[in-house]
Structure prediction request, 268 residues.
Amino acid sequence: MSGKARQKGLVIIDYKITGCIVTHNNIRSIDETVKTLLENTGDIDFTLYAVDNASEDGTPEFIERTYPQVQVIYNKKNPGFGSGHNVVRDRLDSKYHCVINPDISIDRNVIKQMAEYMDKHPEIGLLSPKICFPDGRPQILGKRTPTLRYLAASRLRDGGEPSPLLREYAMLDTDLSAPCEIENATGCFMMFRTDVFREIGGFDERYFLYFEDCDITRTVRTRAKVVYYPETVVYHVWGRDSKKDLRLTLVQIHSMCKFFAKWAFRKG
Prediction:
């Protein structure tokens, strides 16, 4: 039997799904992330990888000790977010693959829900869930292609009501209560059709951090649809570290320049 079978009214997924977390000194958040992922995926064939980018706080050792079912991979240095995720690219034997931040949590099997939706819509190459803060408030994240105006509006927001420009960037001027196509998906939680992820070569490793999610979304859109699926919710501890750390601000600006230079004369 292939795809999915029905038994006593329940949908049984009989294929493999994989997920990968890239860690770097995430000892404070990783337990909640791994625990909720494993607790809520017990009824599917789910393999979780953790690629550690040279943590110095014991993150990979904690995962190995506490969750021996997780496949931990050690990098001797920190090559960045996208490069870390690409480590598992050629190992994947799944139908769908999830890119997962080390500071997310779930309270139900959203991975199964998303896979079932993608089963019904083979034109989708990348599916993005609704992202909320741990207290349930929705996070305002860009869903249209980033522009300098949009990024400035996002950067300048002080926690109050979003400006009209930021509302446009986050598609708050659109009905987001139902699934819809988007131009930009957040990298904190992404579900790819695995064959699409492999065909595009995974993430562009020229980005150390930031904009790699914008970049891979645009790449996927050259061959498949990218869809926002609000019926599934993932909780994300969003720190906006680049606003607090000058070094990360410079990394973000560097990545932004690479992104605009790469896509300046391309369609998609």
